[in-house]
Specification:
The complex is a heterodimer.
Chain A: H1 23-28, H2 33-38, H3 43-53, H4 65-70, E1 81-86, H5 96-102, H6 104-117, E2 122-127, H7 132-147, E3 163-168, H8 178-185, H9 200-203, E4 210-214, H10 215-227, H11 229-233, E5 236-237, E6 240-241, E7 243-250, E8 256-261, H12 267-274, E9 284-288, E10 297-298, E11 302-309, E12 312-319, H13 327-332, E13 341-346, H14 351-365, H15 371-389, H16 396-405, H17 415-435, H18 437-440
Parallel strand pairs in A: 1-2, 1-4, 2-3, 7-13
Antiparallel strand pairs in A: 5-6, 7-8, 9-10, 9-13, 11-12
Chain B: H1 5-15, H2 25-36, H3 42-51, H4 55-64, E1 76-81, H5 84-88, H6 91-101, E2 115-120, E3 132-134, E4 137-139, H7 144-161
Parallel strand pairs in B: 1-2
Antiparallel strand pairs in B: 1-3, 3-4
Helix pairs in contact in B: 1-2, 3-4, 6-7
The chains are: A alpha/beta, B alpha+beta.
Chain lengths: 452, 162
């Protein structure tokens, strides 16, 4: 079956000739009309629309946005904060970059609708330090929105006031974790907080209730406010509503960003029909479906079991190519949809070397507060780097697995899982390659990319 | 601390964005680094006094975040992405080419003082790998040939200045 056509909701104007990121262009395209209407409605109605929509967070965990909003402590009398998580850092993910640079007002409109719905008076955009132009573009866009009275005091004469400020990160991946982000916004090291008790919805920034939403999620809120939660829930598949932006990188003919209805496209359609298949003379070997911490899939393997379709349980047997690209299907086969970053590797790649590259990343980015993660990520890096640059041993595979198995579930935040899943899954799927590496590395092919 | 009047104005303004002064630690460090090129030791006390916190609180932040530098760098800052998607497309070769072109090693100032090459983690432009940031600007699909072009451009600008 050929791939369905793209359905561009969030990326409607990305790369559109003549579309610019100033407010004039946005207003000419109907900008802020949704906000004008939303601000006349009861805030609870907007929250209900988001609940009805089934929208799941696009940052990685896929947590339902309406539920997240529902958990906010509204009785404490403390101010409620909203933080836009624009710390896009998961390797393989590059969708927010284009929204921020090319269509910043879409994000601001979605943010303001979300702020109004949740009675937020002060919001921050936490943008990663490596987007200096993005930060300036957003700052200018917010000023434009202030000048038009969409942001600031007594917005459009309604009596509702809310301001947005930009807060730049400084190169630390862990700031994408919401409680690490909150610490960073408070001016500290981004050491994630322990939950309980520090659920952001109750004890977030400044110990006040706080909502942290991904850039793409907030853009979806704008669409939901415009068309209604029910209409949104009909896009995609049940449980995986709306569209999904896939960021494809690595060894395909046409890497890039593609927006499809969630669950309506399979991995095979995405990689072959949309991205043009492998590079000339190459075969696909492995793919990471949802950012570099997602467990790897090996081409040729098959997934079997039962899954729920409607009210019934049905058998499924999928190859890698058959797997629908949605949160639930990818979770079913033991990996995750995560942030939508699809990293493709062809048969020129040695998996020990690819893992060594990933391990170097996680070792560099561990915040260091929990021993299993700080030490474990370092040892996984040291072992894989030594295998490539020094002596590799047959028993390294078992050693790596034993280190990886001691991390998840023993750390304050999900980084423990994120850094151990690559090692666990690479060893599970490509164990032979790790065991034989001491032999195969002697005949390393010159075309193999240098990865560590 | 010898900061430009414009930086001081921005510092006073940005502190007003937050309910607590301490939140302005990262913005202040960014502004200081943009002004003088790095975070000198004396900045810890200066920022601490400004935000009514302890110097150790500032030092803590400076050492945690990779983008804050405690030493000066070359005139231009070349950041090559090291992470998987870029490495798959030749990022390591790109980095080596910049080192060769400027006769330097990563994290050092080149002998002519023109550049510091750094091999950094994911820059979030994986679809156009390998990517490089030169100061604030992103350059996409930087293979060895394009790295040489970019290096030549930097060298030509340097020659004009001399």
């Amino acid at each position: 079956m050929p791939a369905p056509a793209q359905r561009r909701i969030i990326f409607q104007h990305i790369d559109e000739p003549g579309y610019s990121n100033d407010i004039g262009c946005y207003l000419r395209n109907g900008g802020y009309e949704v906000f004008r209407k939303a601000i006349t409605r009861a805030p609870q109605e907007l929250i209900d629309e988001v609940k009805k929509s089934g929208l799941r967070g696009r940052g990685g965990a896929g947590f339902p946005c309406g539920v997240k909003w529902g958990l906010v402590d509204r009785k404490s009398g403390k101010p409620i904060y909203l933080i836009v998580n624009a710390d896009e850092s998961e390797p393989g993910t590059f969708k927010d970059r284009y929204i921020i640079h090319q269509d910043p007002h879409q994000l601001i409109e979605g943010t303001m609708i979300s702020c109004f719905a949740n009675n937020v008076k002060l919001a921050y955009v936490y943008i990663r330090g490596e987007f200096p132009h993005g930060a300036r573009i957003l700052e200018r866009a917010i000023q434009e929105a202030r000048d038009h009275n969409f942001v600031g005091k007594n917005i459009l004469g309604t009596g509702y006031s809310c301001d947005i400020f930009i807060h730049r990160g400084a190169g630390a991946y862990i700031c994408g974790e919401e409680t690490g982000l909150i610490e960073s916004l408070e001016g500290k090291r981004a050491n994630p907080r322990i939950k309980p008790p520090f659920f952001p919805a109750v004890l977030g920034v400044y110990q006040c209730p706080t909502i942290v939403n991904n850039v793409e999620t907030l853009c979806h809120v704008k669409y939901i406010a415009q068309h209604g939660g029910e209409a949104f829930s009909k896009i995609g598949t049940p449980g995986n509503t709306g569209t999904r932006i896939f960021c494809v990188s690595g060894h395909v003919q046409r890497p890039g960003y593609y927006e499809f209805e969630a669950g309506k496209i399979t991995m095979g359609q995405l990689l072959y029909d949309v991205c043009g298949g492998p590079l000339p003379g190459r075969k696909f070997k492995a793919v990471i479906p949802g950012g570099s911490s997602a467990k790897i899939m090996r081409f040729g393997e098959r997934y079997k079991g039962k899954r729920k379709v409607g009210a019934e349980m049905v058998d499924y047997e999928w190859s890698v190519e058959d797997v629908p690209m949605d949160f639930d299907s990818l979770a079913l086969i033991g990996t995750m949809g995560g942030s939508g970053g699809v990293i493709v590797m062809d048969d020129s790649v040695n998996m020990v070397e690819a893992l060594a590259n990933i391990n170097a990343f996680y070792s560099h980015e561990s915040c260091g507060q929990c021993t299993p993660c700080r030490e474990g990520s370092l040892w996984m890096k040291r072992i894989t780097s030594r295998m490539v640059h020094g002596a590799a041993r047959e028993e390294d595979a078992a050693l790596l697995k034993s280190v990886a198995d001691q991390i998840p579930g023993r750390t304050i935040c999900a980084f423990g899982e994120a850094c151990s899943w690559p090692t666990q899954s690479f060893i599970a799927k490509f164990g032979d390659e790790f065991k034989n590496y001491h032999e195969t590395k002697k005949q390393r092919r010159s075309e193999a990319p240098e990865l560590i | 601390m010898n900061l430009k009047p414009d930086t001081l104005t921005k510092i006073d303004e940005v502190i007003t964005h937050y309910p607590t002064k301490r939140s302005a630690t990262l913005p202040l460090l960014h502004l200081i680094q943009e002004d003088i090129g790095y975070i000198p030791h004396e900045a810890h006390e200066w920022v601490a006094a400004k935000l009514e916190i302890e110097p150790i609180n500032v030092f803590d932040v400076v050492t945690f975040y990779p983008m804050f530098r405690q030493k000066p760098i070359g005139r231009r800052h070349i950041k090559v992405c090291r992470t998987l998607s870029c490495a798959l497309m030749g990022g390591y070769k790109t980095c080596a080419e910049f080192e060769k072109q400027f006769n330097t090693h990563v994290d050092e100032i080149s002998p002519d003082g023109e550049v510091t090459v750094e091999f950094v983690e994911c820059l979030a432009s994986c679809g156009t790998a390998p990517v490089v940031m030169i100061d604030d600007d992103l350059h996409e699909k930087v293979d060895v040939a394009k790295a040489k072009q970019l290096a030549d451009h930097i060298k030509a600008e340097a020659a004009k200045r001399r």
